[in-house]
Structures
1.
Amino acid sequence: MRLTKVSEDTRLEETILMGMIVSSEFLADIRPVVDHVFFTSSYTQELCNWTLDYFDNHQKAPFTMIESIFESKKDSLDREDVSVISGLLQRINKLYTNLEDPNPEFFSKLAVPFFEKRDLQIRLDKANGFLSQGNLEEAKNALEEKRTVQIEEFEPVSPTQDSVVNEAIFSEESGCLILPGAVGEMIGPLEKKWFVAVQAPMKRGKTQILQEMAILSAFQRKRVWFVTMEMNKKNMGHRFVKRVTGCSEAGPGRYVVPTFDCRLNQDGSCLSKNRCNQITLIGEDGSYPDYTDPDVIAGLAYKPCTYCRDLGDKRIWEQSLWYSAVTKGDYKSKSMMKRIAAFEEMYGEPYIKFVNYPKFSKSITEIMNEYRRYRDRTGWVADVFIVDYLDITAPEKHYAQSRDTIDSNWKTAAGLFDQENVLGISPAQGSRASIKKALMEEDDTSEDIRKLAHIDVCISMNQTRLEKRKKCYRLGLLAHRHRNFDVNTNALVLWQLQLGQIMMDSTTVFIQEEEYTQSDEKKKGRKK
């Protein structure tokens, strides 16, 4: 059938759709807020989607190309749909012909109140649907899901105007999150609106790093919204308790803890009167005691020495590692519960909020909308937004290639973190080749290297098998939009996973890939 008579509301809707088809400037203004569901019929919704897809690909309105798009779609449409859409395009063409001044401002004045009205109607319909099912809570949530449909006024600034210069030079803002030691010196303060990725091969400890960043943010009185799509709340709770108490779920006993030491202290060649030993660690045959056995470590009279390092005299101190043995209690005891309570009392409020979703169940937009509803309802505003992790969120859009879907998710996340004025953090999976590499490089990003285009900072997590046994790893930089960096400069970080301690201490090291191996066997082979 062919529609011949239309109501005033329908004519208004078609006029707005016509503006989207003919005006690139108007379409660019409303692209962040427009949604096909604002249009009331399946036919106008179809035309809206065609128009938005064309704009996303070409950054301009389709104008006369809409007819070509329609022709290309005909074969996949029912005969009646073809007839209705053809009539719709004819009316839109007539509207455009009769319009005296089709400027963007004219369309914007029509679109904003129309979108607000449709948003309200959609929310009311959803709420009524939930009410009819007796679901009061979902009905309330539906009413609270208000979209932003106002077109933002763009106001450029001069880089030399007083407000910009004062903020750049005299601002006391010291960063949203400052990481400790050599890690913080290498990366610098992490700011709100930034998007930070932590990249490592699978099962290397990315979630551990993210949780440590969450806890360090809390220590700095920053609120953290932590989204996990890989771990349940019980497992996350275990890790948090270990981090705060320094105890292990394995129970009470002795544990080996890594510490920095000086090689001159170990071989006895140090001549400083401040050396804390009169004995050597290394045997005459060059062997070391068993550093994996806490009882062996506890029985040694040898003590690590960092006197020269603590003074900052690195000309004398030659970085090495050794260990101490510590005795820990059972974190399941009542005294540990008091320590957890004391942690919260010290800071006055829970600074970390955990949210758990199944894999691929929510898109980053849906995740952010749920946070917004909580923020609006409670007044709790996040400073840091951690998503573990973006590659397993539901697609923002469906593409034939999975890499395009992932690129869309990361691109959307970057925009949302900026809009919400939060420091966004998510892990990035390293490539298969990076599993055996001692030092990751820029091309070791899995799935889609375009991730690096959407982020401000990419932190690499490097670790050989030998380093894993020695209870250490290295953090480096693969990207930093705001400061100079060197991929080969890393921060060597000490950790004790059994006790939940992720960044115990760190020092700067310069890495040459060929100096590192993934096994002692390869190292021995090269010596021969």
2.
Amino acid sequence: MGLMRTLGSLLKGLLYALDGLRKFLHLALLLVIFGALLAVSHTTLPIIPGSAALELAPLGRIVEEESGDPLDRALADVTGENEQETRLRDLIDVVDHARDDEHIRALVLNLDGLDHAGLPALQDLARSIRWFRESGKKVYAHGLMFTQRQYYLAAQADEVYLDPFGFVLLDGYAYYRSYVRGTVDKLAVDINVFKVGTNKSYPDTWTRGDMSREDRENAKVWVGALWDSYKTDVAAARNLEPGLIQAYSDEAVAGVRATGGDLAQYALARGLVDGLKTREEFEKIVAVEAGEDEDTGSYKAVDWRPYLSIVRSDEALAGSKDQNVGVIVASGEILDGEQSPGQVGGDTLAARLRELRDDDDYSAIVLRIDSPGGSIMASEVIRRGVEALSAAGKPVVASMGTVAASGGYYIAMNADHIIAAPTTITGSIGVFAIIPTFQRTLAKIGITNDGFGTTDLAGATDLDRELGDEARQILQANVEHAYRTFVDGIARARGRRPEEIESLAQGRVWTGADARAAGIVDELGGVDEAIAEAAKLAGLKEGYGVVWIERDMSWREVIAMRLRTAAAWAVRAIAPRRAQMPALSSAMAEVRGLLELAANGRPVYLCRCRID
């Protein structure tokens, strides 16, 4: 017996030693990685020639805020495995700074790497490009091809060139959804849906095999509004009639046949581009304006990312002002607790708002929102923070970006002023809850469930049992209560009767322009207008500062957050994000979303809108 205890003690000591060694090696590896990241990320200010062109080349998605924690982004940059994102504010700032830089003679738009951007983001960047042109400097664009989003920015240039083997794809906006009711039936999964709002269409993915009449009619309005705005903007930039943009798509078959199948010639014939040039030919054109680089034979160029370091350096040298408007970004799905950038954590954002109440450096706040909604609890926590900040005497202006729908509108409703872009997607004032149960699925492989509880509610929401009638009644009542709270809250904030807001709610989606006409948005504009309004409400005089408030996370916080979100990552692993077929990818995204909803402790959601 003593020998066994001795051996047990030795074994336990060995395990402790091995665990200590593992921790030491892990720490050593992290230090090596951090050192490498610091070495890679260390940059110096670029040398600007006396004459040069600024190259603007956004990659991946244009976003309000880069997603992921600092370690995620740093490792992804080093390994090259990151999903590229480019922050909208960085693009705008470099263009605005270059406009007044005497060394920058031209702006070159290289849009081949741009994958995705919402129309309001494109419009904000396009405005800065137009201001650059109005300063007397030329803007050039060249592409191997132009997708619809890429072409929106390219159209803002003085001269647009396309590769002779390229094409311009303007296919309009589409609203297609994947419906998995058939799959759910085959798997014998019961989808229990509780909602308020005839137009709250997210649950339709699970309960229908096609689009509902209400969803189709509502979508026709906002999708059509986006396309009309796109055509108007592009036509104005190219001095064309909006009808010619529509005709370019509708008459593509006949037009391409007329050019013998030459897509580039078709774009040229319709006036979308000014010429067909190879990259080398294009570079010679720009060199006339920007100067020739004798080493490469191209034009003298400055890449926008190193140039951004100059912009930020100049901002730092300018120092802080006595009176400032702070700008906070709420970008991504709204989730409970602490969350990394790219998602809106209820506790994370509320804590930041609370800190600002007592910070004398800030006289007013702009809440920049780009969110499709999410957890009602997290949204309520944030709303309370906005209300408390305003009550403390610091005006809050909500600035809506690409989307501020449902939960995205909920966190804005108590702001002192709400400003949206004309093409912002907002509204969707409705509530739903989804709970899947798998008792029939398990029965197919011989697994059954039996037992008892001490109350009628005990085990009522177990996913391996049919949802109890008591639980159904409670969930529906809770959803209805949440909806009334939402509607009544908007009515109080807007000085309207609940019946008036009810007529605008029911989950209906609005564009910013329609929301303004309906009175649930105060003004149309972008973040600049929101900043000016916040300063006005705070009584700030000209010369006030503007500070974008970003919270840098420590490595300890990053690691702690990773531990808290490990379960959510496991859920995501069950339904991978990527698939070879677009339809399968969309379906997998819906499955992953349902699993995340099921894994969430509070199943009531304001929205999970997916708008492209």
3.
Amino acid sequence: MSDKKDKDLPDTDELQKMLQDMFGKLGGGAAVPFPGFSESDGDTDEGEGDDTPMEIDRADAIFDFNYKPRDIKSYLDRFVIRQDEAKKALSIAVCDHYNHAKFMRGLEQEHGKIPDGIEYQKQNVIVVGPTGVGKTYLIKHIAEMIGVPFVKADATKFSETGYVGGDVDDLVRELVQKADGDVDLAEYGIVYIDEIDKLAGSGGTMGRDVSGRGVQTTLLKLMEETEVAARNPNDMKGQMMAMMDFQNGKEGGKDTINTRHILFIVSGAFSGLEKVIKRRLRSGQIGFGAEVVDPNDAELFNEASTQDYIDFGFEAEFIGRLPVRVVCDKLEAKDFVNIMKNSEGSLLRQYEREFAAYGIQAKFEDSAIKRIAERAETENTGARALMTVCESMLRDFKFELPGTAVSELSIDADLIDKHDEILAKYRELGQRVDVAKAREEADLYCRQFQEKHNIKISLTDEAVSLLGLEAASQGRSVLQISQQRFKDLQFGLKLIQKNTGQGEFELNEEAVEDADKFLSDRVVQSYTDAAEAKQAAKSQENESSSSEPFIE
């Protein structure tokens, strides 16, 4: 009975195939590697013996952290223009956070556990500023510099655990993915949540707010310290893999991820917060002699208190977990000029590369940079406006100039202010024939034709000029026009070659204007020439025979 039961069970290979098919349907058809199963079951890889040097724990590398706030700010200056106060505050918060993590890691390794009585409030950060001022760029480059995994998400995609929508715990699990499965390293990563202001609940909300206050409550424990399951309990694929690990007696690594040393940074534009601050400031001014306080909105954000954030719609416990508050300034025209000229990620370099791909050297003059900056400022979308302005300004040039005779493009104020007029000039310039370039491409076509068909051809200067004009008007190359125009040329030339023995052929203006007629006329002429040559040879033979002396 037992033997029959065992025979009915699938073997290891069959079980692996069944599960892979199932997971393929669940996860888009990708093959799933199963711990405990391998093609060489029971074999160990070479180099896994005791003599093999142990791989350095990447998490331990975090504790070589020896940056100073000034070092981090200097690094950020390469990528983000302005925002000096924000850079200082972030640099200090990051250094304090990872220096503490280094200290705690040392104590844990020395004593086997973290000693009691050591208190530390995490320096989670809230960044306030309008869109496009570099908030994400700052955080991303900090993580890049210190070498920790970095996860970014928008707050609007999350809902409270148990409801439809993203689970905030998944942010922590994603850190493990970014750390290539290294949970120890992931426990020192950075989680960045943008658009956090969208979670601010309104005072009149009735019932359960699963996408606002509910998410704030869920984030509270993550930002302080908690254990997050390494696998999502709602992820069937992950749970099945955990089961397979257990059944095969394989250690699946840490089951949970501790958030004690994960740095949380949140950001948002906080539109409307300035009204809350103004209301508070004005309420404190009573009497006829009170000074009217009405600073600019950008300055108001620096005056924001904890109560202002609570009045805006945040839970007191939530905002209390974000002790470091950073305000990014709105960018002005002079900042955009600085970004385009001095930032390592300057958009101008991108456009220069894009034109260079078409064989056009584009150069941005100072007058154009100033004009772009002025227009970008009016867009009110921060540095993102630079792409909007440049794309609108250069779209027609990028469409019409590639493939023409234009090899240089000077981008100045006139090109922006007199767009249509300058475009017309470049369009006319593009239609002019670059004789040297046209001849080079024509000769290339002739060489390719000879290699492919074993027939030698050449193009007259007049023919090349006509091809160049046509190529310029169509935005194509002389080589492309020639390949299309003379695609059946070899058939006629081989007939001519057979009829006349001609070894070389010259293509003139007539061949360019009407290749079929040119070839047809030449083929007919070759037959005529061949017949005449044959007749001439026969006549000469007859004459030769009649002129011989008669011998009796």
